[in-house]
Amino acid sequence: MAVGWFQLIVIAIISLILMLEVKISKGIIHDRSVSYNQDDIKLELHNSGPVALDASITFTAKLIFLKNTVGNDSHAGRYEYVWHDNTAEKKTRIFSNETCEWTKHFDSSNVSAGSYNISVEVYSTIFLFFTRRLVVQGSQKFELTEMLNGKLFVRQNDTVHRWKDVYSTLTNLTFAVNLTDSFAYHVKYNYIWLIGGTSYHTTVPSIVMVFNQSGEYTIQPSITASYNKTILHQKNQTESIERYFTQKKRIRLKFPVTAVNFSGQQTVQLGKPLTGNITCNGSSPVALTLCWNVTNSTCISTQFQSSCSFPVNHSLQATPGVYNFSAVIQNDVSRDTSNFRVNITKPPDDVNLAAILVPVVFTVGASIILLAGIVCYHSLQKVNRVETANFDFSADEEDKKHGRVFGAIKEMLLWLFWKLPAQRPVSVRREYSEIST
Q1: What letter does residue 322 receive in the DSSP assignment?
Q2: Are 183 and 226 in contact (CB under 8 A)?
């Protein structure tokens, strides 16, 4: 009788489980967060490869719920992830929530370098894992390599980079290798850098250089990773392993912009243009942005050109005073800003021509009059006289002579200013003194 009751209980439990399976398959029963409709769930797979043999690789599976979500709880152990790769037949089971990670390393004694496949099946669990249902599954490829994996980076701060792999001279330039392989063994690294035909050795995966000459350079790091590992299935025997990394990169170096200079007027009258020329040193091509801080900030930009020589011809409209203008010159690797000053002066007042011409005219006229008088005087001195034996040099005769001189000057002035016909000078009268016998 007891056995009969036990059989009935077992049959009832099995029947209940089957009923639950049917309801789960139809999407009727939900867990506390999401529906189990397979069309509502998306699986994302990622891996940290490629990795070198003997290094660790991490696989990540993430469930994306597209719709019909209810609740926000996340509980470890809710989903069962079954991982499998085609390097071995063994499967790995992990219970996790919406995200699951699996880390593994592939021993070089057992696996060769190449392309492999990883797959994962995700199951939902219920009633303490007595029943489960496949929610989603997926797979992807991953790479195992003999060489070390990583990437060479070139970094330069505080400079302009118009083009990829073009850098500035005279400034620190850092070369660094980011190795992505992670080993569980004690690894010794050796770093050698071949830069421009010269070899350098460092104890870290980076080197800082300063170049004084422009041109093209080739950068090639060579890294060796050495470690000892136990031979698989032989606990007391080890082997020495070396793995290598190398990468070649070409870069171009150019001189930065320096020695910006403005040659031209430093003082200009209001309303007149400021003229001059802006020059600099540095690798071409170069471009100029000229900014004026007069009444408001105004900037004028040029196209890139082969020579660093820019003519300036700009009219300044502002009140008199001292103002600044800036010249921003850029090339492929640098940008230089230089400030200059210009003094705007007030133009001179209009000149009163009458105030200048009147004194000049009177001065010239007086000079002409004086000159005419001198000429007339000398002309009268040359008039022929008949001298007599009368030695009476009286004052009356002298006064008459001077009167004739001033009369001639008067007539000359009348001719100059009024253009009146002047009479010719009267001949000097000749007087004769009688000589008594």
Answers
A1: E
A2: no
Grouping H, G, I as helix, E, B as strand and the rest as coil, residue 66 is coil
Contact 220, 207 (CB under 8 A): no
User: Strand order of the sheet with strand 267-269?
Assistant: 267-269, 335-345, 321-330, 287-293, 297-301
Residues 332 and 166 sit within 8 Å (Cβ to Cβ): yes
Give pLDDT, residue 144.
97
Q: How far is CA 424 from CA 404, 408, 409, 411, in A?
A: 12, 9, 12, 9
- Which one, of 46, 43, 24, 38, lies nearest residue 67 by Cα? 38
Angle at 398 between CA 396 and CA 401, to 5 degrees: 110
CA 370/CA 363 separation, integer angstroms: 11
What is 79-120 written as a DSSP string? EEEEEEETT-S--EEEEESSEEEEEEE--TTT--SEEEEEEE
Please provide the distance, in angstroms rounded to a whole number, between the alpha carbons at the two ends of the chain. Answer: 218
Does residue 40 have a pLDDT over 60? yes
pTM above 0.70, yes or no: no
Q: Residue 70: is its pLDDT beyond 70?
A: no
**Amino acid at position 268, single letter:** V
> Largest Cα–Cα distance of the chain, in whole Å?
218
In whole angstroms, what is the distance from residue 277 CA to residue 261 CA?
A: 8
Ranked by mean pLDDT, the top range of 7-11, 131-135, 337-341, 382-386 is 337-341
Integer Cα distance of 389 and 368 in angstroms: 40
Asked if 154 contacts 165 with a C-beta cutoff of 8 angstroms, the reply is yes
d(CA 229, CA 393): 152
Please name the helix (run of DSSP H) or strand (run of DSSP E) that holds residue 327, with its range, or none. strand 321-330
d(CA 254, CA 216): 9
Tell me if residue 127 falls in helix, strand or coil.
coil
